[in-house]
Design brief:
The complex is a heterodimer of chains A (347) and B (460). Chain A has 347 residues and is an all-alpha fold. Chain A has one domain: Up-down Bundle (Formate dehydrogenase/DMSO reductase fold). Helices cover 73% and strands 1% of the residues of chain A. Chain A starts with a helix and ends in a 13-residue tail after the last helix. Chain B is mostly helical. Helix content of chain B is 70%, strand content 7%. In chain B, the strands form four sheets. A two-stranded antiparallel ribbon of chain B has the order 1-2. In chain B, strands 3-6 form a two-stranded antiparallel ribbon. In chain B, strands 4-5 form a two-stranded antiparallel ribbon. The C terminus of chain B is likely disordered. The chains are: A mainly alpha (347), B mainly alpha (460). Chains A and B meet through helix 2, helix 3, helix 4, helix 5 and helix 12 of A and helix 3, helix 4 and helix 15 of B.
């Protein structure tokens, strides 16, 4: 039962990163691809009706995580106190940047809103990447299942690391580039003309960095935590995950050359799902490894709630998800198609 | 307050108090918007549609601020109250996670359709999306109340082998009698905020001679709904909620009333300042026997005073509890008086010309916010010294691994951030109020292909 919930929560987190990832990505690449007021509005309009719903996946995944593994939620949220609070502030600032820009008729304010929106998107991507890095690397858990990490200590990977060390900075940058490419792919699908051409070029340039960083982070992960390979030897079918990662990386430039933007976007989606899925696969059944002593690690067994609750949860969760996926399909179908300059009065 | 415990309490109190300024209006406005949409469909009158669109914009602004200040609440159980989160997660996380999957997805999707899909989908779907937004926001409120009600009156659980609370009965959790009364009372409060805001807007338009036609419509709907909701808030909802406090939280009741010594035929205090050092009430004005009657339905019943309970069961801020309760009840009584008179004038067809009443209505809109906030302070300070009543003390629930310095740092950060949010909110709201429902009336507008959650301008 706890394994099912592990998988479900991993799926929800992947859904969150894929969905909110592209609107974060739009924020990351907007300074490079969207020139001038008209194109900026266009970039925002491409995510306008959906970004809020995308963010709900973070809340839903967080809620499910708290529900199934209360100790994990309590321990990690208090242990990652400072970065989480900053994430909250950045989410607020980003929301302001997206939503309120069109409500003021002052070019100076537009620049400010654009700056806030992009800066918050960039920092959020780095924070989320560093968060995944922290979970893979391990945190200094005590015997009571709690820890507290300062933002940084000496940037070395040791038993007493900070949130940021060289490894998590690397995963943060990897996330930044990943979401940037993902966002550029999305803009290429949703726009046409100049902005589309620039989005394609940005995605192509980002792809080179993405390949390099993927290799680099893989080597780094194997060196600081060789045990990530254990599950791959125990369950050989897991090798399909690295195949997905390699395949999607290879597919991106191929589709780009053929002008198939939608397929390129699906390839970056598969890449994100593969990378996160691989991390989850390598961690299982651990939820949060301890850098202090492996026996303090939080696992699906010592962090789970009662069996009755998990069982009932499966019923209401399935019902809720069917409804949610229904709304999302309807929403995305309603707002499908490209956005173009000039047709907007509102945004 | 420089202790870690005190700072974590202040942290949560500050962020949740600020957050709830927004949902109380959206939950209150949602049914009123459904009323306008229904009238438009039924009477085939475009003015009701324009009114609905205007309030949808006010709704959307508040919804946006409610969302961005609400996300921190979901985090803070873990960040600032990790021991409580671990202990109670087996039960309350069911309610919180259900809010996510059943309310948030529903709200965010249908709000998009409601704000941008009127042309694309036609009037029937638009009406349906208004109803769904209403349902979503009220479901959301229900799951939050279920969570709080479990902290006030824990039911449907058992203590598991790991020493934390595990859910034993799903339906007992959702059907908690405390949750049902608290929900009814809380939603009544939200409707009061929404309808007062609507009546105040109407009064403002009439007094300033702007958009007079819509001013009258807002006054009519606002006053009628506010009059019903204000009376309902006293009886049955306030009375029903009070009965539960008297039954399950007796020290809280005594502190709310400023009753130090047990009394037969206890009176209700209207005014007076509690002096906890000398255990008395300064210059009290009492209605004799009323408390005994209201609590036990018998004039001579004995109501227990604080001294009949051990000190470690007393709420830790008796004065704040006493005042917030009295402010809530006092304002609630004034609301009934204002709205009954306003409704009478409306019935006699004199309301639109009674400038003195319009001034009162226009200036009254902040007070439901104060009453709702005071009500929540009563509930949460009244629950002290427990974070889960009778099971876990507040002092055991906070994140002991997060230092006072870190908590103060982020509290100050939130204060700065919320100052900025307040300024932006007021600017946006003022802009919409000045535009009014007649803004861009008659201009043909193109169907949008994609916009933000807050529409800049109306469609149609």
């Amino acid at each position: 039962m706890e394994t099912i919930w592990f998988i479900l929560i991993a799926l929800m987190l992947v859904a969150y990163v894929v969905l909110d990832g592209f609107d974060l990505g739009v924020g990351i690449v907007a300074p490079f691809v969207a020139k001038g007021h008209g194109e900026r509005r266009l970039a925002l309009r491409s995510i306008g009706p959906v970004w809020d719903g995308n963010e709900v996946w973070l809340l839903a995944a967080g809620g499910a995580l708290y529900f199934a593994f209360p100790l994990l939620y309590a321990s990690s949220f208090s242990g990652f106190y400072l970065p989480l609070m900053m994430v909250l502030w950045l989410l607020m600032l980003r929301g302001i940047g997206v939503e309120l820009r069109s409500h003021v008729d002052e070019p100076l304010a537009w620049s400010a809103f654009d700056f806030v929106f992009s800066l918050a998107s960039i920092l959020l991507a780095i924070f989320f990447g560093a968060a995944v890095g922290n979970v893979v690397r391990g945190v200094p858990l005590g015997a009571d299942g709690y820890f507290f990490e300062a933002l940084w200590t000496d940037f070395r990977v040791g038993p007493r690391p900070g949130i940021l060390d060289w490894y998590t900075v690397l995963t943060g940058v990897l996330a930044l580039v990943t979401l940037g490419v993902h966002g550029a792919n999305y803009l290429a699908v949703k726009t046409e003309g100049e902005i589309q051409a620039r989005s394609r070029r940005t995605a192509a340039a980002g792809w080179i960095a993405l390949v390099l960083l993927t290799v680099l982070s893989l080597v780094a992960t194997l060196s600081i935590r060789p045990r990530v390979l254990d599950n791959f030897s125990a369950y050989p079918w897991g090798w399909i995950i690295p195949l997905i990662v390699v395949g999607s990386l290879a597919a991106m430039p191929l589709y780009r050359r053929q002008g198939k933007d939608r397929h390129a976007f699906l390839a970056s989606t598969a890449y994100i799902a593969g990378m996160l899925g691989g991390a989850a696969f390598a961690l299982y059944p651990t939820l949060l490894p301890a850098s202090t002593d492996p026996k303090y690690s939080l696992t699906i067994h010592n962090a789970k709630t009662g069996a009755y609750s998990l069982g009932v949860g499966l019923i209401w969760w399935s019902l809720g998800m069917v409804l949610a996926i229904g709304y999302f399909t309807f929403l995305y179908r309603s707002f499908r198609g490209k956005v173009a300059v000039g047709e907007d009065h509102g945004y | 307050m420089e202790s870690a415990l005190g700072l974590h309490r202040l942290h949560f109190a500050f962020t949740v108090t600020y957050h709830y300024l927004f949902p109380q209006l959206t939950m209150g406005l949602a049914p009123l918007i459904v009323i306008f949409k229904s009238l438009a469909l039924w009477k085939k009158d475009e003015r009701y549609n324009r009114a609905a669109r205007f309030w949808a914009k006010i709704f959307a602004i508040n919804f946006f601020f409610g969302v961005i200040t609400g996300i921190p609440m979901e985090f803070q159980f873990g960040t600032n109250w990790s021991k409580f989160a671990q202990y109670s997660g087996g039960v309350i996380a069911t309610a919180l996670a259900m809010e996510g999957v059943f309310a948030f997805f529903l709200e965010s999707s249908f709000l998009g359709i409601f704000l941008f899909g009127e042309r694309r989908f036609g009037q029937k779907i638009h009406w349906l999306s208004a109803v769904m937004v209403f349902v979503g926001s009220w479901i959301s409120g229900f799951f939050i109340i279920v969570t709080d009600a479990w902290m006030q009156h824990p039911v449907g659980f058992e203590i598991g082998p790991d020493g934390t609370a595990h859910l034993r009965s799903f339906w007992a959790l959702l059907g908690n009698e405390w949750a049902l009364w608290q929900y009814v009372h809380n939603m009544g409060g939200a409707v009061i905020t929404g309808s007062f805001a609507m009546a105040a807007t109407g009064a403002f338009y009439l007094l300033s001679r702007r958009q007079v036609e819509y001013g009258r419509l807002f006054l009519r709907v606002g006053v009628i709904v506010a009059a019903i909701a204000s009376v309902f808030q006293l009886f049955p909802s306030g009375d029903g909620h009070g009965q539960l406090v008297a039954k399950y939280q007796q020290p809280t009741l005594a502190a709310m009333e400023g009753l130090f010594n047990s009394e037969a035929g206890a009176g209700v205090v209207l005014i007076g300042q509690p002096d906890t050092d000398h255990q008395k009430l300064d210059n009290p004005v009492r209605v004799p026997y009323a408390l005994s009657f209201l609590t036990y339905r018998r004039w001579e019943s004995v109501v227990k005073g604080l001294n009949d309970f051990p000190r470690d069961q007393w709420p830790d801020n008796i004065a704040l509890l006493y005042y917030s309760y009295h402010i809530m009840v006092g304002l609630g009584t004034i609301f009934i008086a204002i709205m009954v008179v306003a409704a009478f004038l409306l019935w006699r067809r004199k309301l639109y010309e009674s400038r003195w009443m319009l001034w009162i209505l226009m200036l009254s809109f902040p007070f439901p916010y104060i009453a709702n906030t005071a009500g929540w302070i009563t509930a949460e300070v009244g629950r002290q010294p427990w974070v889960v009543y009778g099971l876990m003390r507040t002092a055991q629930g906070f994140s002991s691994n997060v230092s006072a310095g870190n908590s103060l740092f982020t509290l100050l950060g939130f204060m700065g951030m919320y100052t900025l949010l307040s300024i932006l909110f007021l600017l946006l709201l003022w802009r919409e109020l000045m535009h009014g429902p007649d803004f861009l009336n008659g201009q043909e507008r193109q169907a949008p292909t994609g916009k933000s959650v807050i529409p800049e301008t109306v469609e149609g």
